[in-house]
Amino acid sequence: QTLIDHLNEDLAGELGAIIQYITYAAKATGPYRPQLSQFFLAEVADEQMHAQFLANKIVALGGEPTTSARPVPAAATNREMLEAVLAAERQATNDYSQRAKEAEEFGDKGLVVQLEDMVRDESGHSEETERILRDWPL
Q1: Quick check: 30 pLDDT over 70?
Q2: What b/e readout covers 39-70, taking b as 16+ CB neighbours within 10 angstroms?
């Protein structure tokens, strides 16, 4: 049951990330708006696949998938949006690393492998966001 609860927390995070990326894409401003908006929207598909996997796994384990999203941090500027995204991606990386350990203890190798793939995805998102922020002029 603990694993199911934690997977539901992860699902809430993915649902929140989808909302975060969609709303931040709409809120992006300035001369970099087209690129920044596209950057945010491009992440939605990955987060949606993660959410779908988690919901399916929760049901397979006998649980009920959450329909509540983690709250999206308020962000007034492009930089604040990128910093909030970076924090969320880092949290997801840490959460999935921990969840992979829990899945290993539970004895679900398939879940371990999928969670490790999700760690790779989220760490890639973090690295890309870090690179954007590195020389952000605004």
Answers
A1: yes
A2: bbeebbebbeebbebbbebbeeeebebbeebb
